[in-house]
UniProtKB/TrEMBL annotation:
Species name: Mucilaginibacter litoreus
Record's protein name: Lipoprotein
Length: 200
């Protein structure tokens, strides 16, 4: 765990260039019932009602929020599954071409790029993926290659056993500034999980 957290901290420093450091006097602890997280004092907790999972938000500013989903069907933040600029088919990558207008409608064609190896996929993805450890859980860390575009998020595939399934956890935000992204990365490190959701 220490090795993973050190790697994570180094990742944060490399991302921000100047090395963002949080001041614990400027943070507050938010308790969501099943987990806690330390965030900047000005961020606000927002309660939501989910259909089949526990969801909520943390408001960063007037137009940006951190969203979380704890349940059986939490989004795994797999960019390849939710993409319009490229598609993967039969082990190959195809890039979407400039649309043509046919009978008043835009029609897209896809052109072959290369085989769908991890190296080739990294060339077309907006986000980078790393594997880290948070609070003892194996965690997928997703970071946009450019600030103000893409996603900053974490995904844990198995928090607790839930009947025949398992509870998963996702927390993410989109289009963050460099400072906001560094603050969120610091917040991710502070995540502590302590209670499994009660099932009816």
């Amino acid at each position: 765990m220490i090795k993973s957290l050190s790697r994570f901290s180094l990742f944060v420093l490399l991302l921000t260039g100047c090395g963002y450091k949080s001041d614990h006097n400027d943070t507050k602890l938010i308790d969501f019932g099943y987990f806690t997280i330390n965030v900047p004092k000005e961020w606000e907790q927002i309660k939501l009602r989910g259909e089949d999972s526990y969801v909520g938000e943390i408001k960063i500013d007037s137009d940006k929020v951190v969203y979380f989903d704890l349940g059986w069907y939490s989004n795994s933040l797999n960019e390849d599954d939710d993409q319009e600029d490229y598609m993967i088919e039969k082990g190959n990558i195809y890039l979407r071409d400039t649309p043509k207008v046919v009978k008043g409608k835009q029609v897209y064609n896809y052109k072959y790029l290369d085989t769908a190896t991890e190296t080739n996929l990294q060339k077309v993805r907006q986000n980078k993926v790393d594997r880290i450890n948070i609070d003892g859980y194996k965690t997928k860390l997703v970071l946009s290659k450019q600030t103000s575009n893409g996603v900053t998020g974490v995904y844990i595939d198995s928090l607790w056993k839930a009947g025949d399934s398992k509870d998963r956890f996702m927390m993410s935000a989109y289009r963050l500034t460099e400072v906001q992204r560094a603050e969120l990365l610091e917040a991710f490190k502070s995540l502590k999980f302590y209670q499994a959701p009660k099932r009816k």
